[in-house]
Specification:
It is built from three helices and no strands.
Length: 91
């Protein structure tokens, strides 16, 4: 029953709701960017630990590459969150 009310509200779309949809999109975008970065950095950390366990003699190179990749992912996630918040401020 609640879904029917939501569909009726969406069908009667007016200019008043455009800001709400923008805020919802900004919130979802920031959340997805944060979740994606967390998953990516977690996978990198696991693979770095696995690589060091397999070849301990090249631990320095593996750690350096993992740190650089984690920093790049963090930068992309930060950029995505900033873009989402700037979209939120437009409304």
């Amino acid at each position: 029953m609640h879904l029917y009310g939501l569909l009726q509200a969406a069908a009667s779309f007016t200019r008043e709701y455009s800001g709400a949809w923008g805020l919802l999109g900004a919130g979802v975008g920031a959340g997805l960017a944060t979740i994606g970065a967390g998953i990516g950095i977690g996978r990198i950390g696991g693979q770095v630990a696995d690589g060091i366990a397999r070849q301990p003699e090249s631990a320095g190179q593996i750690q350096t590459a993992g740190l650089i990749l984690a920093a790049l992912i963090e930068g992309v996630a930060l950029f995505a969150v900033v873009v989402a918040f700037s979209i939120q401020n437009k409304f």
